[in-house]
Amino acid sequence: MTAKTKVVVTGVPRPPLAQLDELAGFGVATAHEALGRIGYLGPELRPIQQGVRVAGSVVTALVWPGDNLMIHAAVEQCAPGDILVVAPSSPCTDGYFGELLATSLASRSVRGLVIDAGVRDTAELREMGFPVWSRHVSAQGTVKATAGAVNVPVVVGGQVVRPGSVILADDDGVMSIEAADLPRAIEASKAREAKEQATREALAGGQLGLDRYNLRPLLKELGVEYVPYEEHHE
Ligand SMILES: O=C([O-])CC(=O)C(=O)O
Ligand SMILES: [Mg+2]
């Protein structure tokens, strides 16, 4: 945690919406590879919906276990194109967030929620079409009693997520991108998409990965032998 724990930081600068929209054209797997495999928040942050991809500017809420007071404070700091990232100060599975808070965020054109804890009302959230990625789903509610922080750096899935940075999230999970890396993330993702398209066409045409990636010499070097079935007794 940072030195100042009871703080709401206002006026965080945000990347241009057009850049966020461009990033949203790429999958998390693509952008993650393109940036050199950094910033993935891990496989345990799962979407409650399927088939949704969002990119947005980060507003953070640092909350106490079982207490969603600072989520309410964070909602006020959210603007169109944002994604709210919530992290508890220590692990907690409680359902901090549901359809009422989502209604509030949707009214501010917030693009989604990423929470390193639990959510509830998941059927309603899916019905509303409000995108959520969470570590847990839990009916257990929270109180509103303890001061935390809004728009301070938080840690989610072992990654530091800063206010004003960028989140890209889809069915494969969530990744965090530093604001300064956003243009590079877009360009590198474009280049990777082009490369993958060429590979896709070659594979669809019957070329094998073994040949496309020149893996036969590697198999040989590793001592892998090709043996007819009749000669291979185990
Ligand atoms: O009210 C809460 O504390 C969380 C919730 O269920 C909602 O936002 O609908
Ligand atoms: Mg509720």
From TrEMBL:
Catalyzes the aldol cleavage of 4-hydroxy-4-methyl-2-oxoglutarate (HMG) into 2 molecules of pyruvate. Also contains a secondary oxaloacetate (OAA) decarboxylase activity due to the common pyruvate enolate transition state formed following C-C bond cleavage in the retro-aldol and decarboxylation reactions. Mg(2+) binds at residue 121. This is Putative 4-hydroxy-4-methyl-2-oxoglutarate aldolase. Its EC number is 4.1.1.112, 4.1.3.17. GO terms for molecular function: 4-hydroxy-4-methyl-2-oxoglutarate aldolase activity; metal ion binding; oxaloacetate decarboxylase activity. Belongs to the class II aldolase/RraA-like family. Belongs to the LigK/PcmE family. Substrate binds at residues 98-101, 120. GO terms for biological process: carboxylic acid catabolic process; monocarboxylic acid metabolic process; phenol-containing compound catabolic process.
